[in-house]
């Protein structure tokens, strides 16, 4: 292979990558709806669908968002399972808990069915792209289906139904246990904790203790607000009683002051208390963005493509193994796309992987990376009856959990991509040789060019994902006097900026029981959020 020949092949590969990037940008339009993305949204790798749904959610238009992803809606995903997840999410936030639960159940059934893969579908993916495969949710997505199912039942005041979902979470967590990593631990601890709290609310004490024990083993005692015991519990009840006393007994002056104090002590001694667990969801999970990997092919491997099927398979397998070994040594390579990344192609490997061998071709393979949403440092405070009571931060980062899911899946995805690119390269070389034998060198070159163009059109990365999931979860637990309390959070999106109050709404605290309250903060650093948002 001459230097000029290699340069031409390199140039063709880079041009193919550029053309593919353009085709990818055009294929993520929002169905029949089109909108001009603002520059910051385009830089973040958001699709038109992402932008339209986020704008609707941030403005409180939950019913509009649900209509957009309904079965006949313009933004409904093509895949049945993914469409059910989007319907479940939007209906849940719209407050339609019955229909949200149905959609989530449909998604869970499909997810279980899809553990058995279809051979014909996998073959189709080898000839076109991974989008031809039925969508299979990641471990985190699978767990979050039952998370929403659990919260859905709790919002319907059905703790027994919620306990069924909690038990499903526990079973899934146990089955995933051997495949967890350190970055999975906070998310799985939170899910174990919420399952335990749900069991506790349903009166299933033994199951609650098991789930709490697992969560505590994962993150220790200080990360999550585990049930209080002993002196800590007595102090919490005393604080709640003082709150009730302050609200019930007016301030007094002069000689009436001592009478008021005595009345306050009497109230504090007798007030019944319960607990509330507040789940705060923040932002969006890291989302997939298109990339292009250029995989080096040695001269010996290049010559095998198109000669016969067995040699083509042998060459593709060798390239896959070499590439997988490179990524295993650098687990975060090509994982993230940051704000300064223009999304251009990247060559897989370094001088140690190609030293002393002749590189004949850079094979373009459609790929995806993850883009972490911009989250400036923020602060939050729980507000009870207009009184700031407890500050909170991030308890679990779902972006890390989703990234680990991606690490688990990418070896198989990479092997499919290289096999697919290898088949297409072999077909292009065969077409070139056949046309050249019949009509000359020019005809052969044109035939190969045509095959490469077809390959570019059909080779697209799989960007499908449950992109409405929150990026962060926070858990707060408080002991409060029995009765109705108005809950809210004060949320400051950036240091130095005034906090805005986000209303959760009235929450009924029953003596000796646990109440649940949830709120989603839609701030993603891009979408304009209403100054006062009320989460349903």
Explain this structure to me?
- Helix 10 packs antiparallel against helix 11 (205-219), helix 15 runs antiparallel to helix 17 (398-439) and helix 17 packs antiparallel against helix 18.
- The strands form three sheets. The chain has a four-stranded mixed beta sheet. It has a four-stranded antiparallel beta sheet with strand order 6-5-9-10, with no helix packed on it.
- It is of the alpha+beta class.
- The chain has 18 helices and eleven strands.
- The longest helix has 42 residues, at 398-439.
- Residues 1-30, 251-256 and 531-536 have low confidence and may be disordered.
- It is 52% helix and 17% strand.
> Assembly type of the shown chains?
single chain
Mean pLDDT: 80
Number of strands: 11
Radius of gyration: 28 Å
Order of helices and strands: HHHHHHHHHHHHHEEHHEHEEEEHHEEEE
Helical content band? 40-55%
Uncertain segments are 1-30, 251-256, 531-536
Note the beta-strand portion: 15-25%
Tally of DSSP helical segments: 18
| Spatial gap, N to C terminus | 65 Å
Computed structural class:
alpha+beta
Strand order of the largest sheet: 7-8-1-11
Largest sheet: 4 strands, mixed
Shape from CA axes?
elongated
């Amino acid at each position: 292979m001459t230097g000029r020949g290699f340069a031409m092949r390199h140039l063709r590969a880079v041009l193919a990558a550029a053309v593919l990037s353009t085709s990818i940008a055009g294929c993520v339009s929002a169905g029949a709806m089109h909108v001009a993305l603002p520059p910051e949204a385009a830089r973040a790798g958001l699709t038109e669908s992402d932008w339209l749904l986020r704008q609707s959610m941030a403005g409180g238009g939950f019913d509009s968002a649900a209509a957009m992803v309904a079965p006949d809606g313009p933004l409904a995903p093509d895949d049945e399972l993914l469409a059910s997840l989007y319907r479940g999410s939007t209906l849940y936030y719209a407050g339609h808990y019955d229909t949200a639960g149905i959609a989530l159940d449909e998604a869970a059934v499909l997810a279980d069915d899809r553990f058995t893969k279809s051979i014909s579908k996998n073959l189709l993916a080898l000839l076109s792209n991974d989008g031809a495969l039925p969508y299979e949710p990641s471990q985190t997505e699978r767990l979050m289906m039952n998370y929403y199912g659990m919260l859905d039942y709790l919002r319907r005041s059905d703790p027994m139904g919620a306990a069924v979902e909690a038990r499903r979470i526990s079973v899934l967590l146990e089955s995933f246990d051997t495949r967890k990593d350190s970055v999975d631990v906070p998310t799985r601890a939170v899910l174990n904790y919420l399952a335990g709290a749900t069991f506790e609310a349903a009166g299933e004490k033994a199951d609650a203790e098991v789930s709490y024990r697992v969560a505590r083993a994962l993150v220790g005692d200080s990360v999550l607000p585990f049930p209080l015991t002993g002196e800590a519990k007595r102090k919490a009840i005393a604080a709640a009683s003082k709150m009730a006393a302050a609200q019930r007994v007016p301030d007094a002056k002069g000689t009436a002051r001592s009478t008021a104090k005595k009345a306050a002590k009497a109230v504090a001694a007798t007030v019944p208390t319960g607990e509330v667990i507040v789940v705060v969801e923040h932002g969006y999970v890291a989302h997939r963005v298109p990339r292009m990997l250029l995989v080096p092919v040695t001269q010996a491997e290049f010559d095998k493509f198109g000669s016969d099927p067995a040699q083509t398979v042998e060459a593709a397998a060798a390239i896959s193994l070499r590439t997988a070994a490179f990524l295993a040594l650098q687990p975060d390579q090509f994982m993230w796309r940051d704000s300064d990344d223009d999304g251009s192609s990247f060559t897989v490997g370094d001088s140690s992987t190609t030293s002393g061998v002749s590189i004949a071709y850079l094979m373009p393979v459609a790929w995806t990376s993850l883009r972490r949403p911009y989250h400036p440092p923020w602060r939050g405070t729980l507000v009870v009856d207009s009184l700031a009571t407890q500050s909170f931060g991030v308890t679990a980062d779902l972006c890390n959990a989703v990234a680990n899911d991606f690490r688990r899946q990418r070896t198989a995805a990479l092997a499919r991509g290289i096999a697919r690119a290898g088949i297409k390269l072999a077909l292009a070389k065969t077409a070139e040789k056949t046309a050249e034998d019949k009509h000359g060198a020019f005809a052969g070159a044109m035939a190969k060019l045509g095959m490469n163009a077809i390959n570019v059109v059909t080779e697209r990365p799989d960007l499908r994902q449950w992109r409405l999931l929150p990026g962060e979860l926070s858990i707060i637990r408080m002991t409060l006097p029995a009765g109705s309390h108005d809950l809210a959070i004060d949320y400051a999106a950036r240091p130095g900026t005034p906090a805005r109050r986000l209303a959760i709404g009235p929450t009924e605290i029953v003596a000796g029981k646990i109440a649940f309250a949830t709120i989603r903060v839609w701030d993603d650093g891009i979408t304009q959020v209403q100054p006062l948002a009320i989460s349903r």
